[in-house]
Design goal:
Helix content is about 85%, strand content about 0%. It has about 270 residues and is mostly helical. The chain has a domain of about 40 residues. The protein starts with a helix and ends with a helix. The relative contact order is 0.05.
Length: about 270
């Protein structure tokens, strides 16, 4: 009786157990499917990564081959550059040695020239000192000579002033005599050519007087010029005095014709 009374309950429990087992199986199946899908996704992902890595590895291999070729090329170029560098180094050392030798020779030559120039400088310095002393001595002598010359010049200046005054008085006298002669000569100007051959003596006297006046005027100008420039020669008037005594009153003897020389232009006579 007990089994009959509990049989539906037992069946229900068994049914629930079967339903639970079925549900658990479905749950396990779904779980396994999910895991399988995840595994497939991972496998596909890993496969893609493998392909990507394979392609990258292929690129790396190609790049490595290129680098090896480039390395070989660089290595050959390095050997060539090394050989050129060694050659250039050898040539550079040769040039440096030669330049060093030339520089040493040039330095020795310049040192020799420097010694010569130093010796010349010392000689020139001694010569300069000697010339400086000589210049000082000559300067003092020049000052003394200049002082003496100034004293001589002042005395000579006073002397020439007196001579100029005397000459001016003589020239004034000669001008007065020449004026009187020109007045008398102007009266017979038309007959000068005719009587020239007959009265050479009177003509020569008048010409000597005019020559004397011109000479005195020239002396006067020279003395004035000497007075202004402080340079000149001593003017002597001793040889002029006889010429001054030659001038005198014209010959007034009766019956003697007094020819007159050709008359100078009025402007020139006034200047004289």
């Amino acid at each position: 009786m007990l089994n009959r009374r509990h049989r539906p309950l037992l069946q229900a429990v068994i049914f629930l157990g079967l339903i639970g087992a079925l549900g658990y199986s479905v749950f396990l199946y779904n779980t396994l499917n999910l895991k399988l899908e995840k595994s497939d996704q991972q496998i596909r992902k890993f496969t893609k990564q493998q392909k990507s890595l394979s392609s990258q590895l292929q690129v790396v291999y190609e790049h490595r081959a290129k680098l090896e070729k480039s390395f070989e090329k660089e290595k050959s170029e390095h050997k060539k550059t090394k050989a050129e560098l060694a050659s250039n180094k050898k040539e550079f050392l040769f040039n440096v040695t030669r330049a060093k030798h030339e520089t040493r020779n040039r330095f020795n030559s310049l040192e020799t020239q420097h010694r010569m120039l130093k010796a010349q400088h010392e000689e020139l310095e001694l010569e300069y000192n000697r010339l400086q002393q000589q210049h000082s001595r000559l300067s003092s002598e020049h000052q003394e000579v200049h002082r003496q010359q100034m004293q001589s010049f002042n005395s000579l200046k006073e002397q020439k002033k007196m001579e100029i005054i005397n000459l001016e008085e003589q020239i004034k006298t000669f001008k007065e005599q020449a004026a009187s002669l020109r007045v008398r000569l102007s009266e017979v100007e038309q007959d000068a050519a005719y009587y020239k051959g007959l009265h050479n003596k009177g003509l020569l006297d008048i010409q000597r007087q005019q020559t004397t006046i011109i000479s005195l005027n020239q002396r006067l100008r020279e003395l004035k010029k000497y007075q202004k420039s402080s340079i000149g020669e001593d003017v002597s008037v001793e040889h002029m005095q006889p010429n001054a005594h030659r001038l005198g009153p014209a010959d007034t003897r009766p019956g003697v014709a007094h020819p007159r020389p050709p008359q100078l232009p009025q402007a020139k006579q006034t200047k004289q």
